[in-house]
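Hi,

Apologies if this is the wrong queue. I'm a grad student, and the batch job for DUF1993 family protein from Mesorhizobium intechi produced an output file that my downstream script rejects. I'm not sure whether the problem is my script or the file. Here is the sequence I used:
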Amino acid sequence: MKITMYEASVPVFSTRLKALSNVLAAAEQNALERKIDPQVFLTARLAPDMFALTRQVQIATDHAKGAPSRLAGREVPKYEDNEASFADLEARIAKTLALLATFSAADIDGSDDKVIELKLGGRETTLAGMQYLLHVAMPNFYFHLTTAYDILRHNGVPLGKATFLGSR
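Support response: The file is valid. Your script probably expects a header line. Output copied below for reference.
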């Protein structure tokens, strides 16, 4: 059996974003329990030259909304990137999940060879749909998703693989 472009994208993005929502909820609860200002977590970064937690979540959702939109030939929705709280990040994830729910297999399947044009590193790039999904969108999505988890774990939030994977 062959995996389709839809199966490799929308359900994966949706499942991982739901898990990210659980990670953020655990972090917010942990901040409350430990009497830590939530801004400490939201502005935390793994290294001085890396983005903070809030930006990691923004970029993860950008890839989750951008990939299916491009593959389906839709305009990529623009978000304001003005989230300043856990509630704001949760709302952004919810908005992205609602968008993902509007895509069907018919919208995305067959986009393997669709020409995707985008800027990468400040330069225009053209990729086939499958190449874009598997070598640009998904790796970037997972990078920022994992970095968000790592920032929180590094700051003492008691997270485990099960929470990251969404199994609890």
